[in-house]
Amino acid sequence: TPNVRPLVAGNWKMNGTRASLDQIKAIAEGVKSPLSEKVESLICPPATLLYVATALCDDSPLAIGAQDCHQNVSGAHTGDISAEMIADCFGTYVIVGHSERRTDHAEADDLVRAKAEAAHAAELVAIVCVGETEAERKAGRTLDVLKSQLAGSLPDAATAANTVIAYEPVWAIGTGLTPTVEDVREAHAFMRAELVKRFGGEGEKMRILYGGSVKPSNARELMAVANVDGALIGGASLKAADFLAIYGVY
Ligand code: PEP
């Protein structure tokens, strides 16, 4: 998308111990190049590593974020973390509505929207995930699903600065399968039109990432599709060399 700075983001999911901080160190070093003026980079490690990871990125353009937040600021919610806590650890992004949260924790669009609003209140950038299941795609419902997920999951106050969309077909996550370039083009063009309808000029500049089995060997063709403004990478973000190879396609 013209005049938009792409974002290459890694989602470590429930992977990574202190030993994995070496990978974050290597990524933080690897993105120290003139390319960082043009392309943003982000790793979302598990919450246990958040604070120490941000300290490692002190002198690097690599941003650090979290994988989820609670919709409330604080309180009796055992096991949850708030957007304020993420900001307190110097995290700057949070993923909300990832399909694994939607499935494992029954998170629906209204909750995802509340989490995005909580992120914004803490001055975090929310990465709001949407995507159809295999059954929905087979039934020809992909664009309907994207329309209703965007309508329900995005706050009215979403801007290009505080919100990123991640299109992640559920059947492409962790499977090695990817949609065709033509299918990605269609989905992203559709989402762009929906965003512009609702948010006007902000919708034109809002980044729409593609996620689902992105790896060094397919990143170049996926990132070249119109309205694809970066990647959300699961498995391939765990190894610094793979993440940096994907980042390097720009
Ligand atoms: C993800 O978890 O957001 C993801 C896209 O995973 P993978 O790259 O492993 O398919």
TrEMBL record:
GO cellular component: cytosol
Catalytic site positions: 98, 168
One Pfam family named in its UniProt record: TIM
Chain positions recorded as substrate binding sites: 11-13, 174, 213, 234-235
InterPro entries: Aldolase_TIM, TIM_sf, TrioseP_Isoase_bac/euk, Triosephosphate_isomerase, Triosephosphate_isomerase_AS
Subcellular location: Cytoplasm
CDD domains given in the database record: TIM (cd00311)
Superkingdom of origin: Bacteria
Quaternary structure annotation from Swiss-Prot or TrEMBL: Homodimer.
Function: Involved in the gluconeogenesis. Catalyzes stereospecifically the conversion of dihydroxyacetone phosphate (DHAP) to D-glyceraldehyde-3-phosphate (G3P).
Identification of the protein by name: Triosephosphate isomerase
